[in-house]
Amino acid sequence: MHFLKDPHDSVFFGCILLGLIVLIGGVSVYLRQFFKLRKNEISLFRQTRRSFLILLGLITSFLAGYSVVLLGTALHYEIDFNSVFSPILLLGALFVLATAYLTNRMFEKLLRSRESLKKQAYQDFMTKLPNRRMITEEIRVALESRKKNPDFQYSVIFIDLLNFKRVNDSFGHNIGDRILIQTSHRLLKTVELSGAVSRLGGDDFVILLRNLSPVESVRMLKKIRSSLSSYYEIDGTQFTLDASYGLYLATHDVSPREAINRANVAMRRSKQRGKNKFSVYTKSMSSSAYDALKFESDFKAALLLGQFELVFQPQFDIQGQTTLSGFEALVRWVHPERGIISPAEFIPMAEETGLIVSLDLHVLNKACAIWSECLKKSGGCRDLHISVNLSAKHITEPSLIKNVTDAISKYGIPPETLCLELTESAFVVDPAFAASRLKALNELGVHCSIDDFGTGYSSLAYLSRFPTQSLKIDRSFIRDIDDGPENIKLVELIIDLAHVLGMKAVAEGVETIRQLENLKELGCDTVQGFYLGRPMPSHEAGKLMKAHKSVSGPEE
User: Fold this and answer.
1) What's the topology of domain 132-281?
2) How do the residues of the chain divide into helix, strand and coil, expressed in percent and rounded to 5?
3) What pTM does this model have?
4) Closest-CA residue to 423 (of 397, 454, 447)
5) 104-128 average pLDDT score
6) Kind of pairing, strands 418-423 and 385-390?
7) Domain 294-544 belongs to what architecture?
8) Among 157, 302, 338, 429, who pairs with 207 as Cys (CB 3.0-4.6 Å)?
9) What is the rounded CA–CA span in Å between residue 470 and residue 508?
10) Confidence tier at 85 by pLDDT (50, 70, 90)
11) What's the angle, vertex CA 270, arms to CA 265 and CA 274, rounded to 5?
């Protein structure tokens, strides 16, 4: 047996004391980390609790052994080296083994976490498809392959699901998510090993096709279109989705981002041509796309900066005495550089870029706010109305009824004084749906009018089902009314049709006294045009309302 004979050995005592201090420091660090995790990271605490307890137990055993040696030395006991240090050495070996095992487990967890984070960084969470970052990297690899081998060909397809938002808003995000998952499965099944399918976000998908000729790429795109055009069935309900497709054939070396952008530009061109169309990118599209993007940027800035101003054109009832009946709110874009931009220029662009609904909402709220002030200043005039134009696209928006309700409530205008004008094209695509929307607006007390009648090819069979209160004859008919009896007869037929359907006949674009007299003789109820009143700012409209009030007298 080995005994330590010189308990006063300062080197030995110092080493033992230093070891004890190190162990106490280690215990305090582990305990502090243990309680910190328990307080702030409960899930991580549960995962590492056992490891912490094992390490703390081993360190505590070390601490006990060192304390025994230190105490024995301080009290001048003869220490049996075998009986004391053998267990300490055994504990040391166990500690090293446990530390190695737990460290290995920790590294495995870190690697799994890193792999999970990597998947999240490169994979769409819902569909498990590669995301924008991953498909960009795939296109970069394809680009490098093309540089090494000029015979290598690749192309990029951009897909936008057109009516997905409507399904999402109508049936809920759960159904929308399941449709996106089904879409990803169809794309994967169609493309197979020919390329990579990715989801950029929302309802946009990008596909990279490898080693396919231009003809084969177009053929593949047609297969994809056919796959997505079939019914989606979820919980017994069938859905159909329309889409627009853009194809970029990589004939030049461009960056991955530019390749995706060019496919997107082609897709936007397809969207302008109609549903379920595809376009192949050409250079001429870029300049048009730049113009559209510039317009979109200026348009959004104009909405934020209040560059859209309203003017009000008076409307007059002409049967009997000519009297003021209301106003139509017309929008003007006062551009800081280009001056006043005509609606004929920016309305079509707003419709193409999808910004028309935002403009509609802006005009509706601003018109209601101004109308509310005019009613207060004129002392009532509830027999007058304000007409506001809505785009054909707005009729399909799920938020339409809410937007109108909110505007009426916010500005406190009588709903019966608000008239919403919708062009015939709003009723052509889905007349039954449009009729249900008009009925909901009528239930709010709002009046509805069919604008530009005679230019939209609407069905007369459906026209009788539309709950509208007036029919507005397009100005082209009024302009030609003096050119011959056949033109007069045509306008008379439209006026008679409106009356048969229980609507008022309204004529726009009246610019001469002859036109006014003809319309009065034909039985037209209401007119507007430069002859009786040009569009005017709100303060002049207010003066006209006050004059009408003084002539018509107090309301009952």
Assistant:
1) Alpha-Beta Plaits (3.30.70)
2) 60, 20, 20
3) 0.54
4) 454
5) 68
6) parallel
7) Alpha-Beta Barrel (3.20)
8) 157
9) 13
10) low
11) 150
